[in-house]
## 1
Amino acid sequence: MEAETVKKKRIFSGIQPTGTLTLGNYIGALRNFKLLEDEYDCVYSIVDLHAITVRQNPTELRKACLRVMSLYLAVGLSPEKSLLYFQSHVPQHAELNWVLGCFTYMGELNRMTQFKDKSQKHADNINAGLYTYPVLMAADILLYMSDLVPVGADQKQHLEISRDIAERFNKIYGDTFVVPEPYIGKVGGRVMSLQDPTRKMSKSDPEDTYVAMLDSADVIRKKIRRAITDSDSEVRYDPENKPGVSNLMSIMATITGKTMDEIALEYGSKGYGVFKDAVADCIIAELEPIQKRFNEIITDKAYLQQVMTVSAERASNIAYRTMLKVRRKIGLAALKL
Ligand code: TYM
């Protein structure tokens, strides 16, 4: 009985509803969301406010929002156990973003590598939102007093700045926020591009560089067959000298649970053709049931509506309490004297 009353630790994470989700998003984040769901009290957001830091077509963005919500449900996340909601439905994210912006130094934001990358990609739209993106991310996490944040390795720097902001605030005003820890998978924290395995797989790159979670079996097989490897033919884990093969091995290892040694033993000398087909097979076997559920859920508007409304309301209750505390600590005018 006693064990049941112990409060579970809290998880927060989010995914941007831009374009389509990739195998990188799945292996680096979404898959872990599901694996951690029973052990933690989970808050999973669809971070639509982050998405508008680059120009979006409104109709496409609206559709992408529902697609990501349907994917959350299709991978098996349970709206009874976890909160599954849109960031913009809980206005305290934006409110805390402002407050935390006043506790973040420009010097810190200047060091963010994602800002530098995205500024290069969107040189015609280097806006203030793109610059302060990590502050909104810190607000997301701190709003829910989150202990753990499952993300891919590319988000490590953003997690570090979230921790720094929380610690700074706590030092000035006394214990207010929980200082969050990142959760990054040892294998699969960084799924690489199929065409340039020294870069991370990204949905903003050309289509042949990534597997989308909703790609058909044929497309997946073609993309994996065309993945860049090397002129040698040995399946061996060596990220430095064999980044392409090592990336495919990591994908297989996370999906099947096999170790690198087991994979090397099984496919080592069979050649890349056989190995690539086996990699494609395991991706397809993993994604097909998700795609089947996705196709049912995306058309069930009533269900989607119910999940997002109930979750947003519960998330708002937590967020409201945090903001009361923050307002009091920093001395904002009280609504009731
Ligand atoms: P986004 O939408 O760019 O990515 C969502 C998640 O997918 C992970 N990811 C990858 N993991 C491994 N290999 C890859 N190639 C790969 N590509 C993407 C990302 O690391 C991320 O975990 N800024 C966040 C969204 C966010 C957030 C938050 C996350 C906003 N607020 C608060 C956690 C907590 C992002 O990168 O989204």
## 2
Amino acid sequence: MHHYPIFLKLAGRRCLVVGGGEAAARRARDLASAGARVELIAPVLEPPCERLLDEAPEGLVHRAELFRAGMEAGAALVVGATGDEATDRTVHDACAARGIPVNVAGRPSLSSYLTPVLVDRSPLQLAISSGGAAPVLARQIASRLETLLPAAYGRLARLAGRMRDRVRATLPDRDWRLRFWERVFDGAAAESVLAGREADGEAELLRLLEQERCRAAPQGEVFLVGAGPGDPDLLTFRALRLMQRADVVLYDRLAAPALLDLVRKEAERIPVGKRRGQHTLPQDRLNDRLVELAREGKRVLRLKGGDPFLFGRGGEELEGLIDAGIPFQVVPGVTAAQGTACYAGIPLTHRDYAQSCRMLTGHRRQGQPEMGAHAPYREDETLVIYMGLANLAAVCEQLRGHGLPEAHPAAVVAQATTPEQQVVSGNLRTLPERASAARLASPALVIVGPTVQLQPRLAWYRGEAEARDAEASVDPCWTGGARG
Ligand code: SAH
């Protein structure tokens, strides 16, 4: 974090604004409206400051003097806005010596705090800062937010403020309260207030509170959510919404850690492993854990790579919930086969080449592939083999032994849809060696079938790894614009 943001309580506190120009007037007005006792220190006032004094906001006094070190003693906050470097520096040095927070307008280097751009729906306030790097950008963002937030948000926040103690007394559990407030802000209570019907909003809030009180304990639930193959843009809207609501998330090793960044910041994060050969939490313990957490009243997010019902053991995880009577939702995800096919440019079906598609696993319970169990295979179908990289040689050999020729096209796509995506193609004879030479990292998917031949033409997505390799292999004299 660049700077640490806070909101200061300045009601009744003495603050100095040194300067008589427009910047001084703006700061003095804001400080006065936050209830501070503001001393505006300037021998001469320019029109914006004169106008401010004419308005005579409560708590503002003008001292027609030059700033002298010592004036700052006892001040809660000081602003230097003379525009004169020597004076501003004197103000800064005097405050720094006493540890008084000081800001010099337009000079982050002479400031111990920065003044944000404000979107004010008091008591709701949004403060935006670019850390001094791009104040215009911060202002643009603020004006966009101004148009997004109805003025009535202030009223909504005030209503919540009035009800806070009562809600706290009725719902002693913090997570329970959190969920209650989310229902208030997402629902009819907030709608009424925003539409100007404050009394209706309050009545609805009280009705919800009574409903919760009768429940006696917060009710937990489980969201079994498919997070897709890696690219966070491939999440569904529903997945994202539930990720933003979770109190706790249990996640496998996901293709992209960026997915976890989208889970609600306050949610507790529990990795449950599932690397090859390294199950940090055995499946039955995991199922029990889901039940326990939901029984504590938590909204539990079980985040899974790809789709939860495709080689994801999602069905097994639900069994325990059903037995325990825990409510749940299941959200489909883009499975690795689809993500890989689209991002690598290998259609799963094609009118001319492949009329069907099968999804298989290269890793059975004993760890060895058993491709024979699903034979025979056809040359005009696409086979997508999950968990097939570790046993690639055996997988290819078994496919050759069950009806597919040696020259049958096959590819491995590693870390598909992420910036690290890598595609290695060949056929059932050459692929294992090529893949091991490329030192592919998991997760990786094996695709076997005639549409693999279309890959060089249809490939459109280049991960950073591929782009780097392509760059390294370009002849320095080659200046063509198209892909190599
Ligand atoms: N439920 C998941 C599959 C879980 S099994 C889904 O629907 O996608 C884990 C296997 O999925 C990995 O061994 C790998 O074969 C495949 N996989 C998952 N993400 C992948 C990715 N980004 N790129 C390539 N393969 C992936």
